[in-house]
Amino acid sequence: MLLDETPLFEPSLLEELDWSSNSVSFSPPISASSPGEGLVLRPLCMADFNRGFFKVLSQLTQVGDVTVEQFTKKFEHMKKTGDYYVVVVEDKNLSQIVATATLMTEHKFIHSCAKRGRVEDVVVTDMYRGKQLGKLLVSTLTLLSKKLDCYKITLECGPHKVAFYQKFGYDPSSETYMQCRFFD
Predict the structure, then answer these.
(1) Statement: the pTM of the whole predicted model exceeds 0.90
(2) What is the DSSP string of the chain?
(3) Is the C-alpha dihedral spanning 49, 10, 103, 75 positive or negative?
(4) N or C, fewer C-beta in 10 Å, the chain?
(5) Residue closest to 85 by CA, chosen among 9, 147, 7, 153
(6) Each residue of 13-70: pLDDT tens digit?
(7) Residue 92 and residue 104: Cα distance in Å, rounded?
(8) For the segment 137-164, what is each residue's pLDDT rounded down to a tens digit?
């Protein structure tokens, strides 16, 4: 099965983001177009299956034994719907994914049939933590949700991460997060 460089979504969406409304600063300065030496921020592509994408995700949660066929089928479904924006940071020197985050858009009838953005699966591999890549990913997805005309963007996080996300304009909700888990 051919795992090519087909992006999950149009890369120009990232290139066209309005960084003037970004609410966090980076020191030393990095950006989506210049995330660090040898690094590139871009949409997930099929070939990332072989670049350690699941190894990075496994530092966040259990990923299971995903086959190439399963990955391809899920990737094609996500691409077809046009509602999934998985961004990755690749170390081009190593040809390895070192960070990733996902924005999903949910179509609503409320708010004049608007869209809601949802951030999921933000993770930076342990060797690259402290390089502001998490900040860069969250800033990118927050700006992308604005560009996609979402009326709001939400995420769930542990209490120890609340202060981190507040830097981006996220506020704790008065709503209670609940779940009904069917398997791990």
Answers:
(1) yes
(2) ------BSS-THHHHT--GGG-----SS---SS--STTEEEEE-BGGGGGGTHHHHHTTTS------HHHHHHHHHHHHHHT-EEEEEEEETTTTEEEEEEEEEEEE-SHHHH-EEEEEEEEEE-GGGTTSSHHHHHHHHHHHHHHHTTEEEEE----GGGHHHHHTTT----SSPP----S--
(3) negative
(4) C
(5) 9
(6) 999 999 998 989 999 999 999 999 999 999 999 999 999 999 999 999 999 999 999 9
(7) 26
(8) 999 999 999 999 999 999 999 889 999 9
Q: Are 18 and 147 in contact (CB under 8 A)?
A: yes
Q: What is the spatial distance between Cα 106 and Cα 149, in angstroms, rounded to a whole number?
A: 11
| C-alpha atoms less than 13 angstroms from C-alpha of 20 in its C-beta half-sphere | 2
> How many CB atoms lie under 10 A from the CB of residue 24?
14
